[in-house]
Amino acid sequence: MRLCKAVFISLKMDGVRWAFRCGSWQPTCSEWLLAARCVQDEEKQRIGRFVFAKDAKAAMGGRLLIRKLIAEKLKIPWNEIQLQRTTKGKPFLTNPILNVFPNFNFNISHQGDYTVLAAEPILQVGVDVMKTDFPGSSSVAEFFRIMNRQFTDHEWNTINMAGDEWVQLDMFYRHWALKESFIKAIGVGVTFNLQRIEFQASPLRLREGQVFKETKMFLDGEQEEAWTFEETMLDDSHHVAVALGKPDMIGKYPVQVQENVSQDPSQFTLLTFQDLISSAIAMAPEDPMYWENFQVQQEKITRQCKKPV
Asked: Which pLDDT score is estimated for 12?
C-alpha cells in the first residue's frame, strides 16, 4: 500500500511591486516593434486593436511587466512563458509551477499615467491604480450623485468631509482603488455589489513615498481580519491599493508560511522600458506594419484632444 506523504514547501520569493509610467513613454519605432516581438501573438493583436495609443501603451506595459516577473522570479525563459486569460479577462500562467510556488499569483492595473503590477508567492493579491482628476462632463456633485450606489453611507461621509472638491475627489478615487483591489484579488466581476464592502480609511491623508496598511475592510458588516490593504501614492495624483488575503490551497501541496514573507508593506519600484525588456527574448519576426498602426492610434488621440478654434 502506498503512503500519502504531505509535502511542505518553504517559499522564499518576496512580494513584487512594480510600476511603469506608460503615460510618459514615447516609444520609438524600434522600441515599439521590439515590444511587439516580445509578447504572444494573440496579445500583440489585441493591443493593436485599441483605438487610442495611450491604451495600447498601457496594455503593452502590462504584458511586459508580467513576462519580466515570470522570467526573473520563476526562472522560466521569456520565450517559453505561456499566458492565457480567464473568462473574466484576468491573465494567468499555464506553465506547470505548482510544485515550486503553489500559490504564486499576480495582478496588474493601468489607469491614468501608470501600469502597475503586484505579485505574491503565498497571499492572494489584487492591485488597482487610480488617478485623481475632475470629471470631464459633469460637476463633482453630479458625478457623486451618479456614483452614489458604489459606496456605503460611512464611505460617502468620509469622502464628503474630506475637504474641498479636489480633496473629496482624491478620497473618492482612493476608496475606488481599495474596492477594485479587493474585487480583483478574489476574481469576481462587475456583478459584485460594492456596497457589501466598506472601508474605514486610515490615515485620512496619504503621503507620497510611504506605504500605509492601517485601512480596515468590512464585508457585510463584519471586519475582515484576514485581509490587509497596502496604500501608497505613486505621485501627487495617483493612488495605488494592494489587497492581500489569506492564501489559497492549490492542489495537494500544503504551504508552510514563513513569517518574514509578505508581512511588510512594499513600496513600488518605478521601471523604465529598458528595465521591462532586460530579460526579454524576441519570439517573432519584426512586423513594420505594427508601427504604422500605432502611428494611426497616436493620430487619433491627437485629434481627440485638439481644442476647437
From this structure: 59
